[in-house]
Design goal:
about 230 residues, alpha+beta, BirA Bifunctional Protein, domain 2, seven-stranded mixed beta sheet, three-stranded mixed beta sheet, 6 helices, 10 strands, about 25% helix, globular
Length: about 230
């Protein structure tokens, strides 16, 4: 069994948060990440286009890029629970099999969600799907370990991994910004916002007991759950 997880917090721009979590973790840590501004965050390999640039200019959003896989995520300040988890090299929770590597993180999230009243959430275990015509929206896809409720994604996950440990980026929306997400990432698709609402859910819709301290409570519960492994 490894040592416990340090619980830390950071309030900054989305780009600054991701930059801080590119450096290899030297210890076990759980970060509650609180963006200081609304942001459009692109995946590491996602191509920047004029639509993204028009969107951030129109709405005054920050444009950021993360170093992990996946595609775009729209984050409205105070509208999501963003938790990054760092595992140092050689940590016993680092699982080589990519299809199983999110299992400890997924389990910790599931336990934390149950504590705030979310029932019926399940970890996805099927074949990875990028979301078809909605693939520019990260939450429209499905990957092993991500948490679904009623077939809709509740917790999205991605990771950046090397011989120097791993960072797991995880997020659940308090209120999913379907209209903004469609505008930013699916501007040519008619009915994009409505379609996304059928693919993505959030903590409020899931019946969670949400309040001012929800994000910090979830981060603490996740740190405690992982520390017990």
């Amino acid at each position: 069994m490894g040592s416990g997880f340090a619980l830390l917090a950071m309030e900054a721009g989305a780009a600054e948060i991701h930059a801080a979590h590119r450096t290899a973790p030297t210890r076990r840590q759980v970060w509650l990440c609180e963006p200081g501004a609304d942001a459009l965050i692109l995946g590491s390999a996602q191509r920047l286009n004029e639509g993204h640039e028009r969107f951030v200019a129109r709405h005054g959003f920050e444009l950021a890029r993360r170093s992990s896989g996946g595609t775009g995520v729209v984050v409205v300040r105070g509208g999501a629970v963003w938790i990054d988890i760092g595992l140092p090299p050689g940590d016993p929770l680092l699982i080589d099999d990519v299809s199983r590597s999110f299992a400890p993180i997924s389990g910790a999230w599931s336990e934390a969600l149950a504590l705030i009243g979310v029932r019926g959430a399940e970890a996805f275990s099927g074949a990875m799907s990028k979301g078809g015509e909605f693939s520019e929206v990260c939450f429209a896809g499905r990957a092993s370990g991500e948490i679904l409720l009623g077939g809709r994604k509740l917790v999205g996950m991605s990771q950046r991994r090397s011989g120097h440990g791993a960072w797991f980026h995880t997020m659940a929306y308090l209120n999913f910004p379907a209209i903004l997400s469609a505008e930013a990432l699916l501007p040519e698709l008619s009915g994009g916002a409505q379609a996304l609402e059928g693919l993505v859910t959030d903590l409020v819709a899931a019946g969670a007991d949400c309040g001012a301290g929800t994000a910090r409570f979830l981060a603490g519960a996740i740190a405690a759950s992982l520390s017990a492994l």
